[in-house]
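Fig. S4 source data, part A: sequence.
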Amino acid sequence: STSTTSASSRTTSTSTSTISQTTATTRSTTSTSTSTSTTSTTSTTSVITSTTPTMTTQNPELNSLSDKNINDNTWTLFNCTYMPATSGNLTLKFTMTASDKHDWYLDDVSMKNSTLVEMLTNGDFESSPTLIGWNTGSGGAISSTQSHSSSHSFYVSSNTVWVSQSFSVISGVVYTVSYWVYFDKKSPGNDNNAVLDVTMS
């Protein structure tokens, strides 16, 4: 079962967002086969959720994750309420820097308006092997080694990779952004190099 925090928004002269975080602890058994394009994994997962304190930040940076504020080897949910100051086009962007100790997985990205209409295309990355609806730099890939739901996620294992999607917004309307992140630890020790930044601009 999944428990999420409810986020509240505050109105200022600039765009304002409120973020909450939920951690899901998973246990998986996997059987993996590899082809030239995708990796197929069958898993059985038990999920227990716990809630952490709410964090508040202002536009354009919605969140910044590293080993200081996200747990290793578990799917973690982040929720954000966002109110744009002006109408027009905005871009939700995830910039992930992997390291020799950590990789990143991103899944089930969603942005809904006040009537719960989904603003994003292919937020669960199931339209593989291509990133339909998303723009991205080189280096990222669709993977089924880890996924929060269904079969696929967006995976970054080297250098700095970004993935983004643009949409039209209306000023004064509260939008809800959510996304699941898996911080994959490959070797022991502290890690100051692996970072994931979430921005809206």
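Fig. S4 source data, part B ends here. The first strand starts at residue 16 and ends at 34.
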